Amino acid sequence: QVQLVESGGGLVQPGGSLRLSCAASGITFRLYAMGWYRQAPGKERELVAQITRGGTTIYADSVKGRFTISRDNARNTVYLQMSSLKLGDTAVYYCNALYASSYWGQGTQVTVSS
User: CA 50 to CA 83: how far, in whole Å?
Assistant: First the structure.
């Protein structure tokens, strides 16, 4: 079955950095667009960044210049490098795989706090 397993979340101070990873199994990874979404308490889930199978990337305006999405097709893994973290980046971050179907990971908590 399809599994997307996120890791790398945690508690970080404002201005700090984290790298999230999402390891995929059960799909032909190279065919999928991979994305990171986040959901803060009381808010809707929103797109943070996406990388197509061809390597094209898109970012939410709120994270441009601070976050970088990348993928390693040999490892079936997508990454989100987050820098200059702000209090407003606190959320549960979800990995998404999109092709003919859409799959979600279980989420990883990122908390930015002093």
Answer: 17
DSSP, collapsed to helix, strand or coil, labels residue 87 as helix
Residues 29-68 as b or e (16 or more Cβ within 10 Å = b):
beebbbbbbbeeeeeeeeebbbbebeeeeebeeebeeebb
Q: Tens digit of pLDDT for each residue in 79-90?
A: 999 999 999 999
Measure Cα distances from 12 to 1, 89, 109, 110, 111 in Å: 33, 11, 11, 8, 6
- Residue 57 three-state SS: strand
Instruction: Quote the DSSP letter at residue 26.
Output: S
* C-beta of residue 59 within 8 angstroms of C-beta of residue 37: no
